[in-house]
Amino acid sequence: MRFSLSRPLLGTTALLAVLTLPVSGASAAPAASTAPAASAAAATRLHKLADAFYQARAHFDPLLITANGDSRYNSELGMSISPKSRARQFALYRRLQTQLKAIPRARLSEADQLNDDLLAFELDSGLSLEKFPEHLLPLNHFDNVPGTLANYASGTGSQPLNTVAQYQDYLSRLNQLPAWIDQAIANMREGVKRGIVQPKAITVAMLPQFQQLRSATPEANIFYTPIKNLPAAFSQADKDRLSAAYRKTVATGLSPALERLALYLEKEYLPASRASDGWSALPNGAAWYQAQIKDRTTVSMNPEQIHQLGLKEVARIEQQWALLGPKLGYSGAPAGLPQWVEAQDKFKSFKTEAEVLDAYRQIDSKIKTKLPALFSLLPKAPLQLQLEPELTRATASDHYTPAAADGSHPGVFWAVVNDPKDYSRTGMVTLYLHEGQPGHHFHAGLLKELDVPDFRKFNTENPNIGAFTEGWALYAETLGHEFGLYDDPEAYFGHLNDELLRAVRLVVDTGMHAKGWTREQAIAYASKTLGYSEARAKNQIERYMVWPAQALSYKIGALKILELRERARTAMGDKFSLPKFHEVVIGDGTLPLPLLEARVDRWIASAK
What we know:
DUF885 domain-containing protein, globular, disordered N terminus, 3-stranded mixed sheet, 4 domains, mainly alpha
């Protein structure tokens, strides 16, 4: 079912029905004859609340829903940065929270108790950030709405362009973008007044992106790209109609709005951007960062604990360099191994982008042969490999986009190849295990196959579950041992170096946002520790600057999964099964780490 843009955010019949349900407290245990009916009523109320929550979130932030593989809202852009929309959304969450607490948990089945737990988590998580004005920072170089829509223009991303209806959906979003841009400018002006602005280095990184979105003619604009790729199967009438509509939208709406945005950033926002780099420099920034840590990791750790954990992990991983260096032909000081590998041309054998993609396909073939020995659950959705679009290639990191639940597009691993001749082989295996299979693709693919409410099924890209999503993907990298892929010293170095990156993230993220580190300090630490060029380290550090605490989720989540695997192996002895452990971890979809731990503990107890 497709929802019309004219449908109000909070005005669906189902939503109003939910919000007028009577609120009743827990009552005495029902008589045996009424117990089944009471249980059914409790389940019905829960499912209505879950549907209402998902519909509200989908209308509020439909781009997130598209990224999660649900195409039903692809005609909507949403206005999550609007203060009025935010106020309505948080008010709704509080009403849903009250309704949820009134449902008698004891009357729910075990499966619905998990739904209850996860819906409560989502509502609590959303409300925990209510007092922090993230809408006043609507743009950054790493993640922004105009850039996301520009990437969708190719039709190869999360929003496919294969049918007339899909072309109309995308055009609808383009028609809403000028209003979004004007709201973003208004928000940034308010942010300037309140001292809530991006660091100057981030604004400098943003400027070229938004300048690139401008064009001399509508036909030269990136948002006109779909018309250049019109499917031959479209009728001539549809081709003519869509071409005229896209040209008008770009010429009369988008181009002026993009011009306003680029000029505002250059003339007003850049001079007002701050000299500081970390989140703690913002008003109430320390509390804001702590709230983001809890939201991104789902655990209660403070910045200093995380910083020390990062230093400990860096030291542990660096101890491996002494053993691995000679196998790669290195005889220098162990700490210098990453820098040495980075400088060696012998690890960079590619001449074309096609050769890079072919190498990834060979890795995929090796992995597929051994998957059945390690996994009892395999996703049905296919996985494709594609190159990152040119618009964002200079600032992007390799990533994965989930398959659509309706099968309209597969899961995609996006490889960022700026210069194939400078592309190192060493990190390819561990990267593919993380972004492809059995990492993100297994989690996201299996999630689409579960019979669970939509708020759980389409929940792979939300930052508040990153500790599971990214933790699982980083854990998947460690399975290179079981796949036999790390017998190759090059591949094992790549794994350790990527693991070192995640440990460094704990150090630099907390360093910048809680301990007063400058951007330059963080770049120097990352460059020295990881052997990265200054440009590559800068790319990483500037990502953490605009996405605080997200980078913490990888290592914290992976360490928890490894801890739970060892706990189960020790407790279960001969009864331990690695495929069954993997089924327990990802078989129920995305879970906050405390709920994942409880699930594994129940499995251990049942085996005893």
